[in-house]
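Quarterly update from the structural biology core.
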Amino acid sequence: MKIVMLDGITINPGDITWQPVSNLGDFTFYPRTAPEDVVSRIGDAEAVLISKIHMTGEVMDACPNLKYIGAMATGYNNVDVDAAHERGIVVTNIPAYSTNAVAQFTMGLLMEITQRIGYHVNEVRNGKWIGHINFCYWDYSPMELAGKTLGVIGYGSIGQKVASMARAFDMKILYNSRHPKTDHDCDDCRYAPMEELLANSDIISLHCPLTEQTSEMVCTDFINKMKDGVILLNTSRGGLVKEDDLAEALKSGKVRAFGADVVAVEPMAADNPLRELPNAFITPHMAWAPIETRIRLVQLIADNLAAYQKGEALNRV
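Predicted structure, tokenized:
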């Protein structure tokens, strides 16, 4: 089988091996591919593996030998799945590979916001503690999480893992999901309608997919239903947030702080309204990227493709 990977540099910049995939056929790797080169690089390949490349019906028509599209991520909104199905092309994705990493990172953002550890580490490095008049000091007052309420919007594998980690900090959990898992409910973790969650959560964490219904759902009206001084976290999709509205809420103090690993347009645009706000803590879409997670991802990419070769259905969408 001829296999082409069009944009694998983010997943593997060279610190892990592609061998689980390359063992499955005639494998060609491209670190990046410009849109105008997609068709020529796929050529007569039967299988294409993509990260962010857009696979349209037009691309599929121009590559008549194509039978398999492997999305190397959980999300596959860059693939026209209907067009693929119409042409008999199998599409797969990689669900749940980064659950632990993203949940861990979400809590890391919360720790940074509530403790300002990075800031104070830099102050020590810069000599501010040397000879200080006080035995100990802080420029930003830390926040204790015990007893606080975390609202989790989207209660799939990552949302559930974040809730589990938060409960270890003695936090209370309210969650909202299209498919409530009320059999999981207990005294400190339960389903709540959205308005109740917004009104009663000290911290809100977004873990829902980006759809027509959720696009820019975090807007002024949504924010006004939150508690004053809420902390908002987003390690899901940047498009969930209407960034101009959130910027105004951060400036006014309605939202105390925003921690995110994603923005609406990536890489971030120079004029992003959140970029320079002191209470916006934004990282460059790296929550999923521990080496252990990426090794797991490569193996799952290979597992999906190997199942296809055997005529089996694994992670088909």
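Residues 291-309 form the longest helix (19 residues).
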